[in-house]
Amino acid sequence: MRRHKPRVTNLMAGVIGVVVAAFITLVVFDKGLPIGGQPYVLKAMFTSVTQMHIPSEVRISGVQVGQVVAVKRIGGSSSSQAAVVTMNIEPDGLPIHSDATVRIRPNIFLEGNYYVDLAPGSPGSRNLASGSTLPAANTAGPVQIDRVLNSLTREPRRNLQTLLQGFGAALNAPSTTAQDATQDPIVRGLTGGQALDLSLKYSPDAFEASAIVNQALLGVKPHDLSGVIKGNEEVLRGLAASGRQLAGFVTTFNKTLHALAVRQQDLSRTIGLLPPWLTATDRSLGPLNASFPPTRAFARAVLPGIEQLGPTINAGIPWLTQASALFSRYELGGLLKLLTPAVQKTAVALSATKRFVQQSDELARCFDHVLVPTGNQRIKDPPVTTGARFYQEFFQSSVGLAGASQSFDGNGRYIRTLAGGGPHLEQTSPVPNGGALFGNFVLPPLGTRPAWPGHAPPVRGNVACYTQAPPNLNAAKTGGTP
Description:
The chain is of the alpha/beta class. It is built from 13 helices and 10 strands. Mean pLDDT is about 80; it is low at about 30-35 and about 480.
């Protein structure tokens, strides 16, 4: 068999391996390739010691967007504190605006490791081109412990010790009687430190109130705070232009504050009453704020009517002139004089009509509550029970009575019936001036049906009819009260 010669020598393979390792190292540690366009360069001027190392990170809101590539001292001296820091910014950190700020912050406290905190600025500002330098007004260096210690020489340290000792003595010294006289009762007899400890009891509520106030200062809509600042600027500009009037205002304001200081106790009580009032006001502000949109809508709707109000008044003035003449004593005033008797008579007629309507109402109620229920009863009177209602029997008996009384003579309206000549001889009760009457009947007469109970219910004129119960027409047969 014939062996093939290898295509790549060992030397060539080693060179390729070194190149690949160098390429991977460059990509990993340099975070980019040495190809493509130039990186965005940003420079910043610092007037204090920066303590920056190469490469230190550049971050925006905690996210790395670049690194420091150079730190150049101004003047070329290593003891010089001013320096220009050069940074390469990745595309993710762009754009950078003219009002951008740069701060050097420690990575880990007291470790000496720093990074650059970059704020890219507001979108309304112009964009900075690559290679631009931020001035020292837009930068801030770190406050380092060594700088603080270098500032504390013997004399400042002695003064600081004296200050701390005096502050400690002031906090630990008990209050005097004269001092307690002007203090709040809850801190009388306490040292300054104890009074400060006691104030922590009210700190949460105070911080909460301060947070609410700070939140309110931000406004409800965008640009509310900027609008307030702009308004304050206009107010201050007006005060500056007032000249002597401002001095007089300050003098008067001083007198006002002096008067308030004299009434300090009353003012304190007034302030103590403010929280409940503010709470009630806060509850009312919600409905008040909710009423504003309908109020604005009503104002917009009523505006055309208000605009036409002037022409309407102008058009109504001639009518008012004519109406004044119409209602004068010579026109409608005389007619009113003639109509007065008629109006008075009408009042009398209305009074009588009112009584008539009341009586008609009572009559209608009597029909509804007494007469109609009485007429709807059925009289049970065997053997002549018909099963018909009382009002039906009443009308039927009226028809029969009219038919039986057609013939009468000069002696009066006496019903004449034809007796049949039967075996039953009946005698009536004595007739005045006539004696008893006799007649023969085929069947014995039934008499008055239903039987007369022997008495009639009493009639009371001072009791309304509709307030009484309907009479029981069968009471005579059942033993009840008719």
